[in-house]
Amino acid sequence: MNSEQLQQVEQLATTLYTTPDESARQDAQSRLLSLQTSAENIPMAQFILDNSQSHYALLVAANSLTALITTHWNNFTIPQRVEIRNYVLSYLGNSGTSLQGFVQTQLIKLVCRITKLGWFDDPSHRELAEEVTKFLQATVDHCILGLRILNQLVDELNIPTSGRTITQHRKTAVSFRDVSLFRVFQLGLTTLGQLQSNSINAEPNQLRILGEQSLSLCVRCLSFDFIGTNPDESSEDVGTIQVPSNWKTVIQDPDTMALFVFFYTNFDPPRSSKAMEALILLCSCRRSLFSTDRDRAEFLQRLMNAVTILMKNQTGFQHEDNYHQFCRLLGRLKANYQLSELVKADSYIEWLKLASDFTVQSMQNWQFSRNSIHYLLALFGRLVAAVPYVRADTGVKGHSSALEVAVLTVVKSYIDSMLGSVGTVLQADGGLDDPLDDDGSLKEQLERLPTICRFQYTTVAQLILEKFDPIMAEYQQVIASASTVSVDQATMIKLQGLEGQLTWLIYMIGAIVGGHSWSTSHLDDGEETIDASLSRRCDDKLEMAFLYYFQHFRRVYMFMWDQSGSTTMSSISSIITPSSKIGSEHAPTTKQKVYQRMFEHMAMGDHTSVANLIVTKVGNNLKYWPNDEDVVAKTLELFYDMASGYSSSKLLLTLDTVKYLLMHHTSDYFPFLSVPSNCRHRTTFHATLTRLLFSSTAEEMPLSFDAFIEPICKTLSQLGQLSPQELRSEHVKPPLIGVLRDLRGIASSLHNRKTYSMLFDHLFPSHFPLLVRIAEVWYDEPAVTTSLLKFVQEFVYNKANRVNFDQSSPNGILLFRTTSDIVCAYASNSLQHHSTNSAQYGEHDMYKKVYKGYALTLDVLVSALSGNYVCFGVFALYNDPALDYALEIALKLVLSISLDDIMSYPKLSKSYFSFMEILFHNHISAVLGLPTETLMQLMNSIHEGLQSSDAPLSSLCATTIDHLSTFYFDNKGKGDKPEMQNLTRHLNSEPNLFASLTATLFNLLLFGSASNHWAVMRPMLSLMLASEQSFTMYKDQLLSTQAPENKQQLNAAFSKLLEDVARNLDSSNRDRFTQKLTAFRVATRSFLTL
């Protein structure tokens, strides 16, 4: 590289990072990426680093070096690797302090990446931490740079690198842990100690950065994955820290904890919050690290003393980051220490009182702490959950009564604060987020309530009822007055406030009642009557709260439908029969007695009455909330869950409300069915009703299937009588979409031959012609065609072998023939329409208006062709063109889609490659009959899909290739077969077809990610047997790229791969060869170069 080329690189780099022109930036990026294509470009990158003054060019050079080193690691000898690392380290030492931060970061990443990849190559790589001490002992700026290197080093060794196996990563990480990590941690603590004692003479800004980097380094070291558990990085919840035993003296040293407390107390975020994070990790160290219980108790005492002082002085709580981290610390205290240990601490009572006050203060200021409250609730939940396991005379005197007082204080404060939040939000008039709208935070809080509230359930329940009853009475009074006079603004605000408070209370009641688990906790005698008292009490938010409550109540108290022994209706009835009438052999269990007392105390009747109440609420929601999609969706979700159980569905069928739903499932009775936004919910509604209807025997059914489907058939008949012009009219569109959605819901709930045949007999032959006409006249309207094709796809899908006609029945053939007519009618018209109107579609409209319909069409054919209910040979035998037409139009459709579009839309690509797989598997003669150019277009798309990062997609492509190569191998020497003649003709025109596929598969195996190796390896044996020359060519080509010392190893690996491999495609031979391929990959990746 010369100065002129350097100037060009600098201009391109400046354009890449500064220009607002998208096209210019993309052009610059594509040209600069050429630096990352070959290891021969490393000297060019070094020239840029040595000679350029442009920070952007330096960043490009650093990025290129990192990519080249990572990708072409095996291309370098060990001395070359060490030389490159030393060069970059020297560059940082000489010029690093004058570089921009982003250039520093990338160069540091490069040094650490080389260190990780070469960890076992040379001892110098394992000495990086010691070499960095030279930075720490130089100028202040060098010290900062050294701490940044150590931070990145810990991250690099802790996080898996793409392209390396988890075994390789863990081997390196464990060695780093044992050799260097403790030393790095000590360097961080030493720097903090120097800052604490003011031993470093530096500017304030430099001192601030030193503190941040040192604390970050300590946090990274303590959060290192010591034992390979691969924790979820997105989670804030810290598990037990498995620090090595040789860290014990530093962890137990009082000065270590005091150091972090000092930095928290005396500085602002981010230093203080990082110090608190270090304290969280410190208190999470494993129990076995401490030699004796006394050592652990002393450590806990120091920690509790420090926490107590911080709470007493409210130190740093004015900062949100500090506050959040402190809440996490309180939560971790009980998570890592037993209650029996906490109560033995001298300051436990004071600590508990201060923690209670801190929690109360946090809840009163909920608008500043909503993301932290659940940590505090978790603390008290864990405390009360451990009470049964601690003797009253253990630890300090009066700890049990102190906890009772603290818990009641916290619960009362939570209730009052959440109820008070309603008025605060209303007064803010949109200026404050409503905590009821934050589903994630709300769910986390409600999940922790049951354990706390059931600790003193009677008192807590009384608190809730004292709040609930006056609010409900006032709400009813306001509703009554509002119905007689016009409602003013003040009344509306008051009504909203009352509804918001009721919403909170119903959420709380639902969480408390539903938080009980029969299998994991003990239900004290009489608690079910408290549940009943709360349940008896039970704006769209209010409706959502009701539904939340019903779901939780159903899970706990209606569970007996499906889990009470034999779960028959007779056994449920026996629960509510007086005990004197039950024989000793049928004596109710404890759970059944609790269940009986629950419903008796609710005073709402037995379980049937309560179920009827819930289902009536479902019906009312569907009637009176038609325009609120969220309420409709949650209501139908509740209804579906209630209908999912065997016994529960039988119980529901006895209810008058359910019978009414089954007999009146039209928009005349349920307006939500006519709201366009509820189209999807029509499917769920009818799927649930159909599931209920067929959950009983024919004698027990409240109405026949004929009566149930009559309204739908009536609509189909009316639509069938319309002329094409009338059928296309806009006012016909809503009922057309609706009836197709309804039919799809019904079809989705048919799981056996009998029920499927009942629907088939109603639709065939009367209404099938209508479906074809719909495809003909509505082909350009996605809303209609989507509903049509989704129904047809569900109807022809042979799940659970439900599409199973008699041997003498032609229905399977007739079903496919109609499917072919629908597909051909839609696809032919759609292709013609879109070919003339494609320019009108924007990039974002193509999928919705074009490709979604194409994907559904392919899904329909995949379901029909793989259903195993049609003998497709019949069509050719009797000159029926239905199959040929369907395949022909499908091929036209897939060939009309560009490869870029196929790979850009995940749903389209899944449908496309699923169709290719079934086509090559069952209808390869149709594929081989295509012109060579057309076949190669299909093979090129399969070749591209094979290299996709989407594992299921590449698996489909690999299976497709396997079908082709297996066919060729099985039919070698059968030149009289037309299919083989066609395939031979194609291979003569494209002799490199098998060779390119073989090369791609081996490259994926050797150099690709391991996510889908098993599926990708399946076609390799059939390809090798089909074209041994292709395998030999790849082997020779790969050997030619390797250094002389690697060729012998690679030859030996290939020889071992082919040992004991038979020349057949039996399953056992395939499996054995696939296992050998895995061993081949592991053996060769350690020395192969690209």
From TrEMBL:
<keyword id="KW-0963">Cytoplasm</keyword>
<comment type="similarity">
    <text>Belongs to the exportin family.</text>
</comment>
<dbReference type="InterPro" id="IPR011989">
    <property type="entry name" value="ARM-like"/>
</dbReference>
<dbReference type="InterPro" id="IPR001494">
    <property type="entry name" value="Importin-beta_N"/>
</dbReference>
<dbReference type="Pfam" id="PF25795">
    <property type="entry name" value="TPR_XPO7"/>
</dbReference>
<dbReference type="GO" id="GO:0006611">
    <property type="term" value="P:protein export from nucleus"/>
</dbReference>
<keyword id="KW-0653">Protein transport</keyword>
<dbReference type="InterPro" id="IPR057947">
    <property type="entry name" value="TPR_XPO7/RBP17"/>
</dbReference>
<keyword id="KW-0813">Transport</keyword>
<dbReference type="GO" id="GO:0005049">
    <property type="term" value="F:nuclear export signal receptor activity"/>
</dbReference>
<feature type="domain" description="Importin N-terminal">
    <location>
        <begin position="28"/>
        <end position="94"/>
    </location>
</feature>
<protein>
    <recommendedName>
        <fullName>Importin N-terminal domain-containing protein</fullName>
    </recommendedName>
</protein>
<keyword id="KW-0539">Nucleus</keyword>
<dbReference type="Pfam" id="PF03810">
    <property type="entry name" value="IBN_N"/>
</dbReference>
<dbReference type="InterPro" id="IPR044189">
    <property type="entry name" value="XPO4/7-like"/>
</dbReference>
<dbReference type="GO" id="GO:0005737">
    <property type="term" value="C:cytoplasm"/>
</dbReference>
<dbReference type="InterPro" id="IPR016024">
    <property type="entry name" value="ARM-type_fold"/>
</dbReference>
<dbReference type="GO" id="GO:0031267">
    <property type="term" value="F:small GTPase binding"/>
</dbReference>
<dbReference type="GO" id="GO:0005643">
    <property type="term" value="C:nuclear pore"/>
</dbReference>
